[in-house]
Amino acid sequence: MGNRLRHLRDDERGISLLWVSMGFMAFFVATTLAIDVGMITTARSQAQNSADAGALSGATALVYDDFDNRSATGPAVVSAINTAKGNDVMFGDVSVLPSDVTFPTIDRVRVAVFRTADRSNPVAALIGPIFGVPTVNVAANATAEASPANAMDCVKPFTIPDQWEEHGTPPWDFGDTFDRYDAHSGEVIPNADIYRGSGSGYNSTRDRGLRLTIRAGTGDNIEPSMYYSWAMPGGSGGDWYRDNIGHCNNTVVHLNDPIIQEPGNMVGPTNQGVDDLIALDPNAYWDDSSRRVISTMHPSPRVIAIPLFDPDYYQLGKVNGRPADLKVSNWIGFFLLNRNGNNVTGIITPITGIYDKTAGPAPQGIFPKVIRLVE
Predict the structure, then answer these.
(1) What is the tens place of the pLDDT at every residue in 64-90?
(2) Which range marks the domain in which residue 65 is found?
(3) For residue 253, is pLDDT > 50?
(4) Which of 130, 146, 162 is the last residue in one of the domains?
(5) Which of 128, 146, 164 is the last residue of a domain?
(6) Reported confidence tier of residue 261, pLDDT bands at 50, 70, 90
(7) Fewer CB under 10 Å: which end of the chain, C or N?
């Protein structure tokens, strides 16, 4: 009997089965953890994408639809919700209500999205139910802003004056001329017009939908409808000028950048370049009811960026005997309607610009906006 007991004590048969069983359980737990943790990580990433897209869409609607409407049924809130819901989280819809779209500042949109038990749409766990965790809550938020731009690219090679305060024959309209300095003495004339600088002229909210016809400038008068040709960097001559109208010149233009006038008569190349652009999207049109461009192309190539020059700086240079000095003070979006002879008619429309970290801050009233995520 003693030998039998000692044999049983020293017998190691079956121990391997115990270790295998324990190893299998450890492997099972690790696999379970990896599957569900990976799923949760993916769900959180998708939720963040949904919130990011919703915030950017809401900020875009502020710029292009209605900057002042922040109601639950306004374009910014509706666009943010629809875009956020268009981004699934683990093959399911997120919950985002009008109250989840907020406006921390006048130019920011914050969107929160949810897949949680409180919203009756939690994310189902794959292995978790075995351990009593059938669902997981996932949420995310993002903030985007439509802030003033401090630079632009793809601008066109002609420039018109920015709006000014018309004191001679108020209020300002397209038939006015900028008159501030006496042509002989250089002194400020009585009841002079005033230009207060970048951000004080054309405004994307107030001036949206204005119809403007521009033509080549003649003489020294500064009129809202007269443009001056611009010798853009990278080339010269009529073909280069026309190409910069019909295509994108990637030169980044900043506030206060100088504009050198293109020598010679550029009326012909201007007309040809405008015709080229209109032909790229011939069926685009302006809808008065929604005050926006309707096109199958996004954006329509017929929406262009026109640099605006500082009328005060230009006129002061002329009366002091300097060459025609032009410098960038603003930009406008301009939808090309048509061309009739040398007259180019378009409608002023919102446009997005660039934020250049190497440049200074943009004035609050500047026309183009930058749409970007800030958190």
Answers:
(1) 998 889 999 999 999 999 999 999 998
(2) 11-146
(3) yes
(4) 146
(5) 146
(6) confident
(7) N
